[in-house]
Amino acid sequence: MSRTKILVTGGAGYIGSHAVVELYEAGFQPVIIDNFVNSRESALDGVESILGVKVPLHRIDCNDAEALRAVFAEEGNVRGVIHFAAYKAVGESIEKPLEYYQNNVGSLLTLLTVMREFGVEALVFSSSCTVYGVPEALPVTEQTPTKQANSPYGATKQMCEDILRDVAAAPANKLRTILLRYFNPIGAHASAKIGELPLGVPQNLVPYVTQTAAGIREQLTINGDTYDTPDGTNIRDYVHVVDLAKAHVVAVQRLLAGTGETVETFNVGTGRGNSVLEVVQAFERATGVKLNYRIGPPRPGDVPAIYADVTKSVEILGFQTSASLEEALASSWKWQQHLADSQ
Ligand code: WQD
After folding, report:
1. Domains parsed from the chain with CATH numbers
2. Which residue among 116, 138, 145, 190 is least crowded, i.e. fewest CB within 10 A of its CB?
3. What is the pLDDT of residues 62-105, one digit of tens each?
4. NAD-dependent epimerase/dehydratase domain: which residues (predicted)?
5. How far apart are CA 228 and CA 305, in angstroms?
6. Is 321 in the pocket of ligand 1 (CB under 6 A)?
7. Are 184 and 307 spatial neighbours (Cβ–Cβ below 8 Å)?
8. Per-residue pLDDT reduced to its tens digit, 236-246
């Protein structure tokens, strides 16, 4: 039986490559669109090594309508799209807001236009818990009011959500979409053949932890320990990237089955909050590697604490995560060691 074709924009990226693996293993035919501006082609070697097949790739920019039309025309019966392609560094977005709005919002508008021309009606959108800003109450549910974003990156995610809700609400609309609000993706595929590939000095916690453990970085700086949390360090909801990838497969299946409303929003997290210090301690327990760290000043713009209420994902989407924090951190460490071996 032929496989249902799903376009994956940003499919060579960290979450995208893991979603490509899970889509294929769930019986779909993923087709990757990526311009490698924030990913490496080596990730696709890893995907091929895991799946034993080469996944079709189109090296294009989602902002290029003509190129996108050519992909839809060439691929023929595309049934759905997962849209990962976007810039995602909070700090960088403050320095380069124009590039972030042009790329993140522009590429969604272009994609929606071309999808409509080709009658493709199912879209899973990569959103983020960053839309909640600093929440008044925890855990956050999908009804928690979104706040004025604390970065242009966060603002682009909010704008894209608004665009999708308005497009789907239009009378002539045919689009059906699911917005997945990610919490903090960590970890790597069990094979250690794909994983997070931060370019340059990692901004995110876990790649900095694994690079410190590997001796690439001298010392981890914990950004502040005077927050109003049990141990004073920030709290986040760290979700294994394979669990996150699986949530995309469930979302695609739901859209193609036509069982939900035209626009649905789901938190994708574990439902548990862990502090930075707890992540460090869990990493040491999971790997046996002692981490060299110090406490530094708070990082401007950091949300003190946020983690997900996952009731809606469990009860409506029928999805819940399975990996523990230790399992996710152990997989990150295995990936870091694989990187060292392959360098
Ligand atoms: C987590 C915690 C840091 C590095 C960001 C984006 C979010 C999403 C995920 C794209 C914070 C602390 C970090 C370090 C530290 N990105 N930390 N030392 O900021 O929660 O989320 O990445 O979708 O939208 O905002 O993730 O991993 O950067 O930080 O103490 O060297 O770890 O201060 O408390 P964050 P993070």
Report:
1. 4-187+240-269 (3.40.50.720)
2. 145
3. 999 999 999 999 999 999 999 999 999 888 999 999 999 999 99
4. 6-269
5. 9
6. no
7. no
8. 999 999 999 99
